Amino acid sequence: MPRVLYDLCGIDENLRFSPYCWRVKYALAHKGLDYETRPWHFTDKPAIGFSEQGKVPVLVDGEQTVTDSYEIFRYLDRTYPDKPLLGSGEAEARARFLKFYAERSLAPGMMKTIVMDLYNALDPRDREYFRETREKAFGRALEEVHAPSRGLSQLDQALEPLRGRLGEADFVDGEAPAAADYLLFGSFMWARCVSTADLVSNADPVYAWMERMLDVHGGLGRNAMRIVDIEGAYAN
Amino acid sequence: MPRVLYDLCGIDENLRFSPYCWRVKYALAHKGLDYETRPWHFTDKPAIGFSEQGKVPVLVDGEQTVTDSYEIFRYLDRTYPDKPLLGSGEAEARARFLKFYAERSLAPGMMKTIVMDLYNALDPRDREYFRETREKAFGRALEEVHAPSRGLSQLDQALEPLRGRLGEADFVDGEAPAAADYLLFGSFMWARCVSTADLVSNADPVYAWMERMLDVHGGLGRNAMRIVDIEGAYAN
Protein backbone atom coordinates (compact mmCIF):
# COMPACT_ATOMS: atom_id res chain seq x y z
CA MET A 1 0.00 0.00 0.00
CA PRO A 2 1.44 3.38 -0.94
CA ARG A 3 2.16 6.03 1.66
CA VAL A 4 -0.68 8.59 1.55
CA LEU A 5 -0.80 12.24 2.56
CA TYR A 6 -4.16 13.98 2.82
CA ASP A 7 -3.45 17.44 1.48
CA LEU A 8 -5.71 20.50 1.54
CA CYS A 9 -6.75 21.69 -1.93
CA GLY A 10 -8.43 24.82 -3.22
CA ILE A 11 -10.50 25.95 -6.16
CA ASP A 12 -8.53 23.50 -8.28
CA GLU A 13 -7.75 20.02 -6.96
CA ASN A 14 -4.10 20.63 -7.74
CA LEU A 15 -3.90 23.92 -5.88
CA ARG A 16 -2.33 22.86 -2.59
CA PHE A 17 -1.59 25.66 -0.16
CA SER A 18 -1.73 24.43 3.45
CA PRO A 19 1.46 25.56 5.23
CA TYR A 20 1.31 22.50 7.46
CA CYS A 21 0.96 20.15 4.48
CA TRP A 22 3.88 21.90 2.78
CA ARG A 23 6.03 21.22 5.82
CA VAL A 24 5.25 17.54 5.50
CA LYS A 25 5.82 17.37 1.73
CA TYR A 26 9.27 18.89 2.23
CA ALA A 27 9.97 16.52 5.13
CA LEU A 28 8.98 13.47 3.05
CA ALA A 29 11.19 14.68 0.21
CA HIS A 30 14.04 15.25 2.68
CA LYS A 31 13.78 11.63 3.77
CA GLY A 32 13.52 10.45 0.17
CA LEU A 33 10.18 8.75 0.82
CA ASP A 34 7.59 8.19 -1.91
CA TYR A 35 4.00 9.10 -1.28
CA GLU A 36 0.73 9.89 -2.97
CA THR A 37 -1.43 12.81 -2.00
CA ARG A 38 -5.21 12.84 -1.67
CA PRO A 39 -6.79 16.22 -2.27
CA TRP A 40 -8.96 17.15 0.68
CA HIS A 41 -11.39 19.96 1.50
CA PHE A 42 -11.89 21.69 4.86
CA THR A 43 -15.47 20.48 4.95
CA ASP A 44 -14.71 16.90 4.00
CA LYS A 45 -14.34 15.72 7.59
CA PRO A 46 -15.65 12.18 6.89
CA ALA A 47 -12.74 11.44 4.53
CA ILE A 48 -10.26 11.72 7.43
CA GLY A 49 -12.62 10.47 10.13
CA PHE A 50 -10.32 7.42 10.56
CA SER A 51 -7.70 9.79 11.99
CA GLU A 52 -10.10 10.73 14.80
CA GLN A 53 -9.69 14.45 14.23
CA GLY A 54 -10.62 16.92 11.52
CA LYS A 55 -7.49 18.55 10.11
CA VAL A 56 -4.76 17.87 7.59
CA PRO A 57 -1.98 16.91 7.19
CA VAL A 58 -2.88 13.30 7.83
CA LEU A 59 -0.14 10.84 6.90
CA VAL A 60 -1.00 7.19 6.44
CA ASP A 61 2.16 5.10 6.41
CA GLY A 62 1.39 1.40 6.33
CA GLU A 63 -0.45 0.71 9.56
CA GLN A 64 0.37 4.10 11.05
CA THR A 65 -1.83 7.17 10.88
CA VAL A 66 -0.12 10.37 12.04
CA THR A 67 -1.60 13.87 12.27
CA ASP A 68 -0.16 17.35 13.01
CA SER A 69 2.82 18.49 10.96
CA TYR A 70 5.26 18.60 13.85
CA GLU A 71 4.18 15.17 15.10
CA ILE A 72 4.71 13.86 11.57
CA PHE A 73 8.28 15.22 11.66
CA ARG A 74 8.83 13.37 14.93
CA TYR A 75 7.28 10.20 13.50
CA LEU A 76 9.49 10.38 10.41
CA ASP A 77 12.67 10.85 12.47
CA ARG A 78 11.70 7.90 14.70
CA THR A 79 10.74 5.60 11.86
CA TYR A 80 13.32 6.65 9.27
CA PRO A 81 16.29 7.84 11.32
CA ASP A 82 18.50 8.55 8.29
CA LYS A 83 18.83 12.25 7.44
CA PRO A 84 17.36 13.66 10.66
CA LEU A 85 14.83 16.45 10.39
CA LEU A 86 14.50 17.65 13.98
CA GLY A 87 17.41 15.88 15.61
CA SER A 88 17.34 15.37 19.37
CA GLY A 89 18.12 17.22 22.59
CA GLU A 90 18.85 20.91 22.09
CA ALA A 91 18.41 20.61 18.31
CA GLU A 92 14.83 19.46 18.79
CA ALA A 93 14.13 22.01 21.54
CA ARG A 94 15.28 24.82 19.25
CA ALA A 95 13.21 23.45 16.36
CA ARG A 96 10.15 23.90 18.61
CA PHE A 97 11.05 27.57 18.94
CA LEU A 98 11.29 27.86 15.15
CA LYS A 99 7.86 26.26 14.82
CA PHE A 100 6.39 28.95 17.08
CA TYR A 101 8.32 31.63 15.23
CA ALA A 102 6.69 30.51 11.96
CA GLU A 103 3.22 30.38 13.42
CA ARG A 104 3.26 33.39 15.73
CA SER A 105 5.75 35.81 14.16
CA LEU A 106 5.62 35.17 10.41
CA ALA A 107 2.09 33.91 9.79
CA PRO A 108 0.14 36.83 11.33
CA GLY A 109 1.73 39.46 9.07
CA MET A 110 1.28 37.19 6.05
CA MET A 111 -2.35 36.54 6.97
CA LYS A 112 -3.18 40.26 7.06
CA THR A 113 -1.61 40.53 3.61
CA ILE A 114 -3.12 37.53 1.83
CA VAL A 115 -6.35 36.69 3.63
CA MET A 116 -8.68 37.76 0.83
CA ASP A 117 -6.49 36.04 -1.78
CA LEU A 118 -6.65 32.95 0.38
CA TYR A 119 -10.42 33.19 0.60
CA ASN A 120 -10.71 33.47 -3.18
CA ALA A 121 -8.43 30.47 -3.66
CA LEU A 122 -10.69 28.19 -1.61
CA ASP A 123 -13.05 25.76 -3.18
CA PRO A 124 -16.45 27.50 -3.07
CA ARG A 125 -17.84 24.71 -0.91
CA ASP A 126 -15.23 25.55 1.79
CA ARG A 127 -15.68 29.31 1.90
CA GLU A 128 -18.47 29.50 4.41
CA TYR A 129 -16.63 27.11 6.75
CA PHE A 130 -13.42 29.12 6.40
CA ARG A 131 -15.14 32.43 7.03
CA GLU A 132 -17.02 31.18 10.07
CA THR A 133 -14.09 29.46 11.77
CA ARG A 134 -11.54 32.19 11.01
CA GLU A 135 -13.81 35.10 11.89
CA LYS A 136 -14.49 33.42 15.21
CA ALA A 137 -10.76 32.93 15.78
CA PHE A 138 -9.80 36.48 14.73
CA GLY A 139 -12.79 38.10 16.40
CA ARG A 140 -13.60 40.10 13.26
CA ALA A 141 -14.61 39.90 9.63
CA LEU A 142 -12.05 38.68 7.09
CA GLU A 143 -12.37 42.04 5.37
CA GLU A 144 -11.21 43.71 8.57
CA VAL A 145 -8.28 41.32 8.99
CA HIS A 146 -7.24 42.24 5.45
CA ALA A 147 -4.66 45.06 5.87
CA PRO A 148 -1.79 44.40 3.44
CA SER A 149 0.35 47.40 4.22
CA ARG A 150 0.21 46.76 7.96
CA GLY A 151 0.73 43.06 7.32
CA LEU A 152 3.83 43.65 5.21
CA SER A 153 5.30 45.99 7.76
CA GLN A 154 4.63 43.50 10.56
CA LEU A 155 6.22 40.74 8.48
CA ASP A 156 9.21 42.93 7.65
CA GLN A 157 9.92 43.39 11.34
CA ALA A 158 9.31 39.72 12.13
CA LEU A 159 11.81 38.67 9.45
CA GLU A 160 14.76 40.35 11.20
CA PRO A 161 16.23 37.27 12.90
CA LEU A 162 15.74 35.17 9.76
CA ARG A 163 17.47 37.86 7.74
CA GLY A 164 20.39 37.78 10.17
CA ARG A 165 20.74 34.02 9.97
CA LEU A 166 20.40 33.88 6.18
CA GLY A 167 22.98 36.62 5.80
CA GLU A 168 25.58 34.12 6.97
CA ALA A 169 24.29 30.70 5.83
CA ASP A 170 22.45 29.28 2.82
CA PHE A 171 19.82 27.65 5.00
CA VAL A 172 18.60 28.18 8.55
CA ASP A 173 19.92 24.73 9.38
CA GLY A 174 23.29 25.38 7.71
CA GLU A 175 24.63 24.12 4.40
CA ALA A 176 21.53 22.05 3.65
CA PRO A 177 17.92 22.51 4.69
CA ALA A 178 16.36 20.50 7.52
CA ALA A 179 13.41 20.89 9.90
CA ALA A 180 13.94 24.58 10.72
CA ASP A 181 13.85 25.50 7.03
CA TYR A 182 10.77 23.38 6.32
CA LEU A 183 8.88 24.64 9.38
CA LEU A 184 9.33 28.21 8.17
CA PHE A 185 9.08 27.70 4.45
CA GLY A 186 5.63 26.10 4.71
CA SER A 187 4.27 29.57 5.45
CA PHE A 188 5.99 31.07 2.42
CA MET A 189 4.55 28.32 0.18
CA TRP A 190 1.10 29.03 1.62
CA ALA A 191 1.35 32.67 0.56
CA ARG A 192 2.99 31.86 -2.77
CA CYS A 193 0.31 29.40 -3.86
CA VAL A 194 -2.66 31.69 -3.25
CA SER A 195 -1.29 35.20 -3.78
CA THR A 196 0.99 37.31 -5.92
CA ALA A 197 1.91 39.57 -3.00
CA ASP A 198 5.63 40.34 -2.87
CA LEU A 199 6.32 39.54 0.74
CA VAL A 200 10.06 40.05 0.59
CA SER A 201 12.17 42.37 -1.55
CA ASN A 202 14.51 40.66 -3.98
CA ALA A 203 17.51 42.32 -2.33
CA ASP A 204 16.74 40.53 0.96
CA PRO A 205 18.75 37.46 2.06
CA VAL A 206 15.35 35.90 2.82
CA TYR A 207 14.44 36.20 -0.86
CA ALA A 208 17.56 34.32 -1.96
CA TRP A 209 16.73 31.58 0.56
CA MET A 210 13.16 31.39 -0.77
CA GLU A 211 14.59 30.85 -4.24
CA ARG A 212 16.85 28.08 -2.95
CA MET A 213 13.96 26.50 -1.07
CA LEU A 214 11.81 26.52 -4.21
CA ASP A 215 14.56 24.62 -6.02
CA VAL A 216 15.56 21.96 -3.48
CA HIS A 217 14.22 18.41 -3.75
CA GLY A 218 13.81 18.61 -7.50
CA GLY A 219 11.94 21.91 -7.52
CA LEU A 220 9.20 20.64 -5.21
CA GLY A 221 8.03 24.15 -4.37
CA ARG A 222 8.78 25.76 -7.72
CA ASN A 223 6.68 23.15 -9.55
CA ALA A 224 3.63 23.61 -7.34
CA MET A 225 0.51 25.06 -8.93
CA ARG A 226 -0.24 28.67 -8.01
CA ILE A 227 -3.54 30.49 -8.21
CA VAL A 228 -2.17 32.54 -11.10
CA ASP A 229 -1.77 29.32 -13.09
CA ILE A 230 -5.54 28.85 -13.09
CA GLU A 231 -7.19 30.87 -15.80
CA GLY A 232 -9.63 33.42 -14.45
CA ALA A 233 -9.16 32.34 -10.83
CA TYR A 234 -7.03 35.21 -9.55
CA ALA A 235 -9.20 38.11 -8.47
CA ASN A 236 -7.47 41.32 -7.55
CA MET B 1 46.54 32.23 36.68
CA PRO B 2 42.81 32.62 37.25
CA ARG B 3 40.39 32.78 34.34
CA VAL B 4 39.46 36.43 33.79
CA LEU B 5 36.40 38.03 32.21
CA TYR B 6 36.46 41.72 31.37
CA ASP B 7 32.94 42.86 32.21
CA LEU B 8 31.30 46.21 31.47
CA CYS B 9 30.42 48.19 34.59
CA GLY B 10 28.32 51.27 35.22
CA ILE B 11 28.00 54.05 37.74
CA ASP B 12 29.05 51.56 40.41
CA GLU B 13 31.87 49.11 39.73
CA ASN B 14 29.57 46.28 40.73
CA LEU B 15 26.76 47.29 38.41
CA ARG B 16 27.28 44.93 35.48
CA PHE B 17 24.69 45.15 32.72
CA SER B 18 26.18 44.18 29.36
CA PRO B 19 23.86 41.60 27.74
CA TYR B 20 26.86 40.01 26.01
CA CYS B 21 28.80 39.73 29.26
CA TRP B 22 25.75 38.21 30.95
CA ARG B 23 25.62 35.54 28.26
CA VAL B 24 29.20 34.63 29.08
CA LYS B 25 28.72 34.64 32.85
CA TYR B 26 25.82 32.20 32.45
CA ALA B 27 27.87 30.07 30.05
CA LEU B 28 30.81 29.89 32.46
CA ALA B 29 28.45 28.94 35.29
CA HIS B 30 26.85 26.29 33.03
CA LYS B 31 30.27 24.72 32.50
CA GLY B 32 31.08 24.98 36.21
CA LEU B 33 34.19 27.08 35.51
CA ASP B 34 35.63 29.51 38.04
CA TYR B 35 36.56 32.99 36.95
CA GLU B 36 37.22 36.48 38.16
CA THR B 37 35.76 39.55 36.55
CA ARG B 38 37.53 42.81 35.86
CA PRO B 39 35.22 45.83 35.78
CA TRP B 40 35.70 47.69 32.52
CA HIS B 41 34.43 50.96 31.05
CA PHE B 42 33.46 51.65 27.45
CA THR B 43 36.20 54.24 27.20
CA ASP B 44 38.91 52.12 28.77
CA LYS B 45 40.11 50.71 25.46
CA PRO B 46 43.78 50.38 26.57
CA ALA B 47 42.84 47.85 29.29
CA ILE B 48 41.72 45.35 26.62
CA GLY B 49 44.19 46.44 23.94
CA PHE B 50 45.84 42.99 24.21
CA SER B 51 42.66 41.51 22.66
CA GLU B 52 43.23 43.62 19.53
CA GLN B 53 39.71 45.03 19.57
CA GLY B 54 37.71 47.38 21.76
CA LYS B 55 34.69 45.58 23.19
CA VAL B 56 33.78 43.25 26.02
CA PRO B 57 33.28 40.44 26.84
CA VAL B 58 36.94 39.50 26.68
CA LEU B 59 37.73 36.14 28.24
CA VAL B 60 41.31 35.33 29.16
CA ASP B 61 41.67 31.61 29.82
CA GLY B 62 45.30 30.67 30.41
CA GLU B 63 47.06 31.45 27.15
CA GLN B 64 43.83 32.00 25.25
CA THR B 65 42.12 35.34 24.72
CA VAL B 66 38.63 35.12 23.25
CA THR B 67 36.25 37.95 22.34
CA ASP B 68 32.59 38.13 21.21
CA SER B 69 30.01 36.34 23.34
CA TYR B 70 29.05 33.78 20.70
CA GLU B 71 32.70 33.00 19.91
CA ILE B 72 33.27 32.50 23.62
CA PHE B 73 30.40 29.96 23.67
CA ARG B 74 32.10 28.14 20.80
CA TYR B 75 35.47 28.29 22.54
CA LEU B 76 33.98 26.90 25.77
CA ASP B 77 32.30 24.00 23.97
CA ARG B 78 35.53 23.20 22.14
CA THR B 79 37.75 23.45 25.19
CA TYR B 80 35.38 22.04 27.82
CA PRO B 81 33.13 19.64 25.90
CA ASP B 82 31.22 18.49 28.98
CA LYS B 83 27.72 20.00 29.28
CA PRO B 84 27.48 21.41 25.74
CA LEU B 85 26.16 24.94 25.35
CA LEU B 86 25.60 25.20 21.60
CA GLY B 87 25.95 21.58 20.54
CA SER B 88 26.78 20.84 16.92
CA GLY B 89 25.10 20.47 13.53
CA GLU B 90 21.45 21.58 13.53
CA ALA B 91 21.57 22.42 17.24
CA GLU B 92 24.29 24.98 16.61
CA ALA B 93 22.64 26.32 13.45
CA ARG B 94 19.41 26.92 15.36
CA ALA B 95 21.31 28.58 18.22
CA ARG B 96 22.55 31.12 15.65
CA PHE B 97 18.93 31.92 14.83
CA LEU B 98 18.21 32.42 18.54
CA LYS B 99 21.19 34.79 18.79
CA PHE B 100 19.71 36.94 16.01
CA TYR B 101 16.28 36.72 17.60
CA ALA B 102 17.72 38.16 20.83
CA GLU B 103 19.59 40.94 19.08
CA ARG B 104 17.14 41.89 16.34
CA SER B 105 13.70 41.03 17.76
CA LEU B 106 13.98 41.44 21.52
CA ALA B 107 16.67 44.08 22.00
CA PRO B 108 15.14 46.87 19.84
CA GLY B 109 11.87 46.99 21.82
CA MET B 110 13.79 46.85 25.09
CA MET B 111 16.15 49.60 23.92
CA LYS B 112 13.27 51.98 23.19
CA THR B 113 11.98 51.27 26.70
CA ILE B 114 15.14 51.53 28.78
CA VAL B 115 17.56 53.71 26.82
CA MET B 116 17.45 56.69 29.20
CA ASP B 117 17.70 54.38 32.24
CA LEU B 118 20.69 52.80 30.57
CA TYR B 119 22.25 56.20 29.98
CA ASN B 120 21.77 57.14 33.61
CA ALA B 121 23.32 53.87 34.76
CA LEU B 122 26.55 54.53 32.89
CA ASP B 123 29.65 55.72 34.60
CA PRO B 124 29.71 59.49 33.91
CA ARG B 125 33.03 59.13 32.08
CA ASP B 126 31.33 56.81 29.54
CA ARG B 127 28.23 58.89 28.81
CA GLU B 128 29.62 61.03 26.05
CA TYR B 129 31.08 57.98 24.29
CA PHE B 130 27.79 56.09 24.61
CA ARG B 131 25.74 59.01 23.33
CA GLU B 132 28.01 59.62 20.35
CA THR B 133 28.31 56.01 19.21
CA ARG B 134 24.64 55.11 19.77
CA GLU B 135 23.22 58.28 18.25
CA LYS B 136 25.35 57.62 15.19
CA ALA B 137 24.08 54.02 15.03
CA PHE B 138 20.41 54.94 15.60
CA GLY B 139 20.54 58.03 13.43
CA ARG B 140 18.86 60.15 16.13
CA ALA B 141 19.16 61.51 19.66
CA LEU B 142 18.80 59.09 22.57
CA GLU B 143 15.84 61.15 23.74
CA GLU B 144 14.13 60.37 20.43
CA VAL B 145 14.91 56.67 20.66
CA HIS B 146 13.26 56.70 24.09
CA ALA B 147 9.63 55.65 23.50
CA PRO B 148 8.63 53.21 26.25
CA SER B 149 5.06 52.52 25.20
CA ARG B 150 6.06 51.79 21.62
CA GLY B 151 9.02 49.78 22.87
CA LEU B 152 6.85 47.64 25.14
CA SER B 153 4.34 47.00 22.42
CA GLN B 154 7.12 46.02 19.98
CA LEU B 155 8.60 43.72 22.62
CA ASP B 156 5.20 42.19 23.38
CA GLN B 157 4.82 41.20 19.73
CA ALA B 158 8.41 39.96 19.46
CA LEU B 159 7.92 37.72 22.50
CA GLU B 160 5.23 35.60 20.82
CA PRO B 161 7.42 32.65 19.76
CA LEU B 162 9.20 32.64 23.13
CA ARG B 163 5.83 32.63 24.87
CA GLY B 164 4.77 29.65 22.75
CA ARG B 165 7.89 27.68 23.58
CA LEU B 166 7.82 28.52 27.29
CA GLY B 167 4.18 27.54 27.49
CA GLU B 168 5.29 23.93 26.97
CA ALA B 169 8.78 23.72 28.49
CA ASP B 170 10.60 25.17 31.50
CA PHE B 171 13.47 26.41 29.37
CA VAL B 172 13.90 27.18 25.67
CA ASP B 173 16.40 24.33 25.53
CA GLY B 174 14.12 21.92 27.38
CA GLU B 175 14.29 20.69 30.96
CA ALA B 176 17.47 22.60 31.72
CA PRO B 177 18.85 25.84 30.30
CA ALA B 178 21.60 25.87 27.67
CA ALA B 179 22.86 28.26 25.00
CA ALA B 180 19.44 29.31 23.67
CA ASP B 181 18.33 30.39 27.14
CA TYR B 182 21.56 32.26 27.87
CA LEU B 183 21.63 34.01 24.48
CA LEU B 184 18.15 35.40 25.17
CA PHE B 185 18.38 35.98 28.88
CA GLY B 186 21.41 38.25 28.53
CA SER B 187 19.05 40.89 27.14
CA PHE B 188 16.65 40.52 30.06
CA MET B 189 19.51 40.91 32.55
CA TRP B 190 20.63 44.03 30.70
CA ALA B 191 17.21 45.61 31.20
CA ARG B 192 16.85 44.33 34.76
CA CYS B 193 20.16 45.77 35.95
CA VAL B 194 19.59 49.31 34.73
CA SER B 195 15.82 49.75 34.83
CA THR B 196 12.69 49.03 36.83
CA ALA B 197 10.54 48.78 33.69
CA ASP B 198 8.14 45.83 33.80
CA LEU B 199 8.88 44.29 30.42
CA VAL B 200 6.67 41.25 30.85
CA SER B 201 3.45 40.78 32.80
CA ASN B 202 3.64 38.32 35.67
CA ALA B 203 0.92 36.17 34.06
CA ASP B 204 3.18 35.53 31.04
CA PRO B 205 5.06 32.21 30.62
CA VAL B 206 8.08 34.39 29.80
CA TYR B 207 7.90 35.90 33.30
CA ALA B 208 7.99 32.47 34.95
CA TRP B 209 11.01 31.59 32.81
CA MET B 210 12.73 34.85 33.83
CA GLU B 211 12.20 33.90 37.46
CA ARG B 212 13.72 30.47 36.83
CA MET B 213 16.64 32.01 34.95
CA LEU B 214 17.31 34.39 37.84
CA ASP B 215 17.53 31.40 40.18
CA VAL B 216 19.66 28.94 38.19
CA HIS B 217 23.38 28.56 38.88
CA GLY B 218 23.03 29.60 42.49
CA GLY B 219 21.00 32.73 41.82
CA LEU B 220 23.61 34.21 39.50
CA GLY B 221 21.14 36.68 38.00
CA ARG B 222 19.07 37.26 41.13
CA ASN B 223 22.17 38.23 43.13
CA ALA B 224 23.39 40.78 40.61
CA MET B 225 23.43 44.42 41.63
CA ARG B 226 20.68 46.54 40.10
CA ILE B 227 20.59 50.30 39.71
CA VAL B 228 17.87 50.47 42.38
CA ASP B 229 20.33 48.97 44.87
CA ILE B 230 22.51 52.08 44.57
CA GLU B 231 21.25 54.85 46.79
CA GLY B 232 20.24 57.91 44.83
CA ALA B 233 21.32 56.48 41.47
CA TYR B 234 17.94 55.69 39.95
CA ALA B 235 16.48 58.75 38.25
CA ASN B 236 12.95 58.50 37.02
Automatic annotation (TrEMBL), chains A, B:
Residues 8-84 form the GST N-terminal domain. InterPro entries: Glutathione-S-Trfase_C_sf, Glutathione_S-Trfase, Glutathione_S-Trfase_N, GST_UstS-like_C, Thioredoxin-like_sf. PROSITE patterns: GST_NTER (PS50404). It comes from the Bacteria. This is Glutathione S-transferase family protein. It comes from Modicisalibacter zincidurans. The lineage of its organism: Bacteria, Pseudomonadati, Pseudomonadota, Gammaproteobacteria, Oceanospirillales.
